[in-house]
């Protein structure tokens, strides 16, 4: 046991400084800089959702102008809707890996550049003898998908690594909840544009008007992306990455200042004081995920996201299935009035679906995520979704035959509610918490990419099934089949959720499943004492030279556990 006399200077070791730095972040009071982090990351997710789901509305317009007969073929529909999820799959893997290799900050914003360029490319895409507009749009939407995919691991790990333990779930769910507003605004923009062009659609050249409309709706997605790009430059590197990957303890202490006062300083022209921590490598990656406990968690995250996105994007990118059932489907009348009614109905229907279930579900998660935990919410969501989809599927004929549109709409809104007050939120949060810093973004990217694989498979299956439907009876049978499949897929998510730990109230280092042995820190503490320059922990007794003094009522410091090492508790 070691004793520290009153007023006696004490030099912290690098390991103790690391513990102090982590404690400062994990125990920080909620501040406006946490709000700033949420808004900056959330602006990206707002843009993601807007860009993804505007294609539901714009596909109808594009088909009216560029497709023979005024309706998209099965191949054209599939290409436009599946290009973004495929791009997202690659973006999640690539950006997740790069975020762990070169840093979160260095990659943060590059994904938005992909989105900006691709969105602009879509708005100016045209038809010519040498280029089919559908092929051009598919390429641009694939590139946009790469940027959208990159936003998932980056925003998740940056938010989790800058958040205090007690409200980390709420910060991450608030970021993700911006998707709901992106979906809502997509419908509102489409509605405003449609109403603005009503006179031109009804009394002028419909083709020219509709061609302008879809370009405006898609192009508006550049505005939030540009705003988010500007502010993302103001986010520092996360102190955890600086400590555990770059191994620079001095810079990490400066970066941690961001959560207190929004300022951080970049140290230049110095000898880096390296921390002795585990280094990322291919061998270490294989060794870590070869352990049964760690592989089990990765599989649980990946399959849960796969199951969720199979339904979420399957129906989210095919709203016509639901909108038709509730009376807001596209009209088969291709007169000017029929075209206006089709576009108007699709926009209003999307707004209804967003307000009825999507947005309330996101914010219910926000309210309860740090109270009842991630795992109970995910289990509850998968359970309810499985039951709801099975009821909708097996009861589809009865509901449709009796024209119970309100009942069908209610069940679908309830499904949207429990998607977001359930696995759609938690599958984003948990992978950002349960892996070590050196592999956190990579593992999050793997989990998210598994989800997009589910989205792609669902999109292909649904499009082909509906494309083969010949007549209303056959189409109803296919919709019934789709809903039953979704119900059973949801129930598999209960099993994968059981593989996951509860993360509420636990630090990221504890969740990483790597025991930080006391003797490692004590050995380093006895071997090397370093001044703690500009230490970030508020209220600790440090002088200008970094000496730590015992408090008046604390005459000794006992190194009996990591929690009693200076920087944890004094």
In short:
The chain is mostly helical. It has helices spanning 14-26, 32-66, 74-101, 104-107, 110-123, 133-162, 168-196, 198-203, 206-219, 222-232, 239-244, 249-255, 258-261, 282-290, 292-316, 320-325, 336-368, 374-394, 396-401, 405-420, 423-429, 440-467, 472-497, 508-511, 518-527. The protein is built from 25 helices and no strands.
H and E order: HHHHHHHHHHHHHHHHHHHHHHHHH
Number of helices: 25
Report the span from N to C terminus: 15 Å
Radius of gyration over C-alpha positions, nearest whole angstrom: 26 Å
Low-confidence stretches at least 5 residues in length (pLDDT < 50)? Answer: 528-570
Structural class by helix and strand composition: mainly alpha
**Biggest sheet statistics:** none
Strand composition percent? under 5%
Keywords:
single chain, 570 residues, mainly alpha, 25 helices, 69% helix, globular, disordered C terminus
Describe the protein:
By secondary structure, the chain is an all-alpha fold.
């Amino acid at each position: 046991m070691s004793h520290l006399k009153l007023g006696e200077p004490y030099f912290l070791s690098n390991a103790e400084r690391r513990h102090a730095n982590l404690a400062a972040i994990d125990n920080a009071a909620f501040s406006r800089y946490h709000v700033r982090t949420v808004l900056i990351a959330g602006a990206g997710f707002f843009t993601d959702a807007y860009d993804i789901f505007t294609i539901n509305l714009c596909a109808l317009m594009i088909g009216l102008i560029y497709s023979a007969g005024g309706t998209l073929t099965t191949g054209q529909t599939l290409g436009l809707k599946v290009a973004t999820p495929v791009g997202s799959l690659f973006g999640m893997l690539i950006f997740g890996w790069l975020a762990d290799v070169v840093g979160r900050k260095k990659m943060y914003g590059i994904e938005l550049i992909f989105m900006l360029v691709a969105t602009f490319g879509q708005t100016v895409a045209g038809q010519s003898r040498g280029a089919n507009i559908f092929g051009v749009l598919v390429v641009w939407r694939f590139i946009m998908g790469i940027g959208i995919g990159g936003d998932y691991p980056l925003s998740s790990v940056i938010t989790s690594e800058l958040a205090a333990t007690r409200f980390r779930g709420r910060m991450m769910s608030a970021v993700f909840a911006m998707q709901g507003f992106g979906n809502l605004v997509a419908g509102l923009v489409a509605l405003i544009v449609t109403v603005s062009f009503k006179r031109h659609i009804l009394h002028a050249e419909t083709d020219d008007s509709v061609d302008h409309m879809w370009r405006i709706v898609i192009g508006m997605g550049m505005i939030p992306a540009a705003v988010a790009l500007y502010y993302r430059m103001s986010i520092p590197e996360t102190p955890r990455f600086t400590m555990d990957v770059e191994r620079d303890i001095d810079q990490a202490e400066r970066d941690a200042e961001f959560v207190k006062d929004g300022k951080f300083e970049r140290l230049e022209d110095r000898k880096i004081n390296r921390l002795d921590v585990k280094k990322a490598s291919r061998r270490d990656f294989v060794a870590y995920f070869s352990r049964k406990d760690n592989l089990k968690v990765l599989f649980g995250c990946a399959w849960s996201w796969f199951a969720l996105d199979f339904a979420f994007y399957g129906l989210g990118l095919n709203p016509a299935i639901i909108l038709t059932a509730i009376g807001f489907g596209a009209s088969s009348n291709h007169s000017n009035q029929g075209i206006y009614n089709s576009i108007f109905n699709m926009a209003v229907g999307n707004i209804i679906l967003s307000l009825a279930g999507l947005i309330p579900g996101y914010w219910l998660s926000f309210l309860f995520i740090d109270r009842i935990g991630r795992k109970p919410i995910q289990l509850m969501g998968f359970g309810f979704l499985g039951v709801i989809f099975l009821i909708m599927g097996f009861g589809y004929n009865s509901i449709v035959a009796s024209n119970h549109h309100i009942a069908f709409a209610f069940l679908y809104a309830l499904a949207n509610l429990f998607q977001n007050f359930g696995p759609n939120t938690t599958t984003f949060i948990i992978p950002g918490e349960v892996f070590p810093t050196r592999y956190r973004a990579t593992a999050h990217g793997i989990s998210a990419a598994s989800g997009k694989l589910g989205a792609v498979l669902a999109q292909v299956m649904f499009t082909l099934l509906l494309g083969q439907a010949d007549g209303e009876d056959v189409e109803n049978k296919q919709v019934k089949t789709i809903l039953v499949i979704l119900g059973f897929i949801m129930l598999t998510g209960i099993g994968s959720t059981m593989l996951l730990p509860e993360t509420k109230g636990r630090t990221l280092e504890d969740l990483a499943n790597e025991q930080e042995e006391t003797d490692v820190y004590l050995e380093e503490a006895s071997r090397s004492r370093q001044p703690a320059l500009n230490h970030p922990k508020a209220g600790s007794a440090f002088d200008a030279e970094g000496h730590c003094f015992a408090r008046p009522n604390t005459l000794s410091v006992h190194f009996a556990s990591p929690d009693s090492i200076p920087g944890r508790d004094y």
